[in-house]
Write a structure and sequence with these properties.
Pfam families: P22_portal. This protein is about 45% helix and about 20% strand. By secondary structure, the protein is α+β, with helices and mostly antiparallel strands. It folds into four domains: about 260 residues, no CATH class; about 120 residues, no CATH class; about 45 residues, no CATH class; about 55 residues, no CATH class. The strands form seven sheets. Strands 4, 5, 6, 7, 8, 9 and 10 form a seven-stranded antiparallel beta sheet that branches. A three-stranded antiparallel beta sheet has the order 3-2-11. A two-stranded antiparallel ribbon has the order 1-20.
């Protein structure tokens, strides 16, 4: 029964691979031709035209390769970088640990090399691939590590043609082929049925000129999983809970009931396991192994990809410009031939002039003879025919071919570093930006692939790093920290709690594109140095010292680390920078003796002034009433003396006499209309 099941699986595997090859063989063939076109000398001529030229030269003037290099190297200067974010506020700390682990995986794996190889392949042919795998850290270790490895031959990878998503995450299978010498294959898998392999007619395409095709077969195995919502708030898969407890699912359910935890809701989830197995087309050479992720760990990078009538058509930068490059080669070769023939124009002679001297004249254009003899009876000297001229049309066509390539790639002279019509820096940068925009789709597709890589890593890390272990966490600046995963620490309630449990976090992944950290460091050195030079003494001393420290910290020079350490200690001691964990905090500043003396003198002067003020206030309380009494006495004495003087002079008596009496005036004047003398008022 087992053999029948294996035979069914082998048959299914063969059908899947055949379907994958048939659906993509044409595009893979074109991609291989495109890659050879810009990398292998002699592949830039049309084969029919090359055969028709025979022994005539077929020169190549590879302009297209510089366009490819421009896009690839621009990416290397502004590498996309993944970032892990916590889906909730409580997940921020775990997300930082996850981010640091992902960076460490990239660093240890030299993932930049895998990204570069795949991206260059995508720009040239339209497709590049890298893979994510696991391996033991050391030969004497049982802890698995995660790695990102390059796949240098993109044509060895075949994806499920029914997959519709760009990253092929919805594909049900994939193949990674490798052609191995037959003797090496038999040595590696000596227990295999190689006689049956040789007789198997279905394995014809698995053999090629003494080589055997060994393929990694990745596939998704459907499984059904029970999802439980527990009364304590947890939502768990029954199989995971049972595996953690070392029980069966039924026993785990009974255990929950015994502990008072009930299952509030349950449902069956259609899921899958990712499996891999090695095959030679005739049988499985290894046992199927489960991969610790829900994704098939093969990450494609596309150049230009477009779905046309349900089928994906993809290509790189080379394919649309191949005809322009071929025409440029033809026209430049014709120009070269014309110029080469110019000094070797044929001679016009009569045969009787050179009779018996033919060997000299046959080698006239190939040998450097000091003279060419003629017969003595020759009537005149031989003459060269009119020299061949380079047609102006060929020169114009070669220039047009060059412009056509620039138009097809979107990169003009300014983008390629050549002199162009733009003269100002602003105009040159604008044209460079135009070229970068025309090719940004390649960079954008790379960011999609790196984001998918981080999603796979975030899914794998909790499964691979599932026990307590110390891991290195890298920061953006390359600084490293060490964290203990699943560490047990006592809590405030006296109970043991698990910290750094990355399995409990939920994460999102984003990608940023910009200059690498090393480039940012150099820009920081230039910017802060310029600011220090311009502002100079206008900066407060602590700010100037901090900016100078930033320049030293970001400078890669011999001895910079020692200067950095000493500078930092000085700034921390001065209180300009906060001490880090493990650094000595700044000591309390000792008071200046002179300032202490001045302070004590100021305090004494203030106390003396206050005492004088209090003494003056006390005296005032005694002096003021006495002064008031003296003033009153003086005033009374002055008044009495004045009265005495007035009495002696008689002025006082006159002032004491009664005032004179007045007679009432008549109400009417006397006859005559006026008063008579002696009749008026008497005083």
């Amino acid at each position: 029964m087992a053999k029948t099941k294996d035979a069914d699986k082998i048959s299914e595997m063969r059908q899947r691979r055949q379907r994958a090859v048939e659906c993509s063989s044409e595009l893979y063939g074109k991609a291989i031709e495109d890659t050879k076109f810009v990398t292998v000398p002699g592949c830039q001529w049309d084969s029919a035209l090359k055969n028709r030229r025979g022994d005539r030269p077929c020169y190549e003037f590879p302009k297209l390769n510089s366009h490819v290099r421009q896009v690839v190297n621009e990416m290397r200067q502004t590498r996309p970088q993944g970032k892990v974010r916590g889906a909730e506020e409580s997940d921020r700390g775990l997300a930082e640990i996850m981010q640091g682990i992902c960076r460490n995986i990239e660093s240890v794996s030299n993932a930049e090399q895998a990204y570069d190889i795949a991206f260059e392949s995508a720009v040239q042919g339209g497709l590049g691939v890298w893979r994510i795998c696991t391996d033991y850290a050391n030969d004497d270790d049982f802890e698995l590590d995660i790695r990102i490895d390059p796949i240098r031959n993109f044509a060895s990878v075949r994806f499920d043609p029914a997959a519709m998503q760009i990253d092929r995450r919805d594909g049900l299978f994939a193949f990674v082929d490798d052609l191995v010498p037959e003797s090496e294959a038999k040595r590696m898998y000596g227990d295999a049925d190689w006689e049956g392999f040789d007789d198997d007619q279905g394995c014809e395409d698995w053999r090629d000129a003494g080589q055997v095709r060994i393929s990694e077969y990745w596939y998704k195995q459907p499984v059904k999983r029970d999802l439980w919502a527990l009364s304590d708030g947890r939502v768990v898969f029954a199989d995971e809970l049972a595996e953690e407890s070392g029980l069966t699912e039924a026993e785990a359910e009974e255990f929950l009931a015994a502990t008072g935890t009930t299952i509030l809701r349950r449902r069956v989830v259609d899921s899958h396991k990712v499996m891999s197995v090695i095959t030679n087309g005739h049988e499985f050479l290894t046992e199927p192994a489960e991969f610790p992720s829900k994704y098939i760990p093969l990450v494609p990078v596309w150049g230009n990809i477009q779905n046309i009538e349900g089928q994906d058509y993809w290509q790189g930068m080379v394919r649309p410009s191949k005809d322009q490059q071929r025409l440029h080669n033809v026209h430049r070769t014709a120009m070269t031939e014309a110029v080469a023939k110019a000094p070797k124009a044929p001679f016009i002679v009569k045969m009787k002039w050179i009779k018996g001297l033919e060997n000299f004249w046959k080698k006239a254009n190939s040998e450097d003879f000091p003279y060419l003899p003629v017969r003595d009876d020759a009537e005149e000297m031989p003459k060269r025919a009119q020299q061949a001229e380079v047609p102006a049309a060929l020169i114009q066509l070669a220039g047009m071919d060059n412009d056509d390539m620039k138009a097809a790639t979107g990169q003009h002279d300014a983008s390629l570093g050549a002199r162009s019509n733009e003269t100002s820096g602003k105009a040159i940068n604008a044209r460079k930006q135009q070229g970068a925009t025309a090719t940004f789709n390649y960079m954008d597709n790379l960011t999609y692939s790196i984001r998918y890589t981080y999603e796979i890593l975030v899914d794998m890390i909790p499964r691979v790093y599932d026990t307590q272990r110390v891991v290195r966490v890298l920061g953006e600046d390359g600084g490293e920290k060490w964290k203990t995963l699943y560490q047990e620490v006592p809590g405030p309630d006296g109970q043991m709690h698990t910290v750094n449990d990355i399995q409990k976090g939920k994460y999102d992944v984003v990608i940023t594109v910009g200059p690498s950290y090393a480039t940012q460091r150099m820009e920081a050195v230039d910017s802060f140095s310029a600011m220090l030079g311009q502002m100079g003494n206008g900066l407060p001393p602590p700010i100037a010292a901090l900016m100078a420290y930033t320049v030293v910290k970001n400078t890669d020079l011999p001895g910079a680390d020692e200067v950095d350490s000493a500078f930092r200690k000085l700034l921390v001691a001065q209180g300009v920078m906060q001490p880090k964990e493990g650094e000595q905090p700044p000591e309390p500043q000792q008071p200046d003796p002179r300032m202490q003396a001045e302070s004590r003198k100021a305090e004494a002067d203030a106390a003396y002034s206050e005492a004088r003020a209090q003494e003056a206030a006390a005296k005032a309380q005694v002096v003021i009433p006495q002064a008031q009494a003296d003033i009153q006495k003086t005033v009374a004495e002055a008044v009495a003396q004045q009265l005495q003087n007035m009495a002696q002079s008689g002025q006082l008596a006159a002032m004491l006499q009664p005032p004179p009496q007045f007679s009432p005036a008549p109400s009417q004047p006397p006859p005559g209309g006026f008063f008579m003398p002696g009749e008026g008022p008497q005083f």
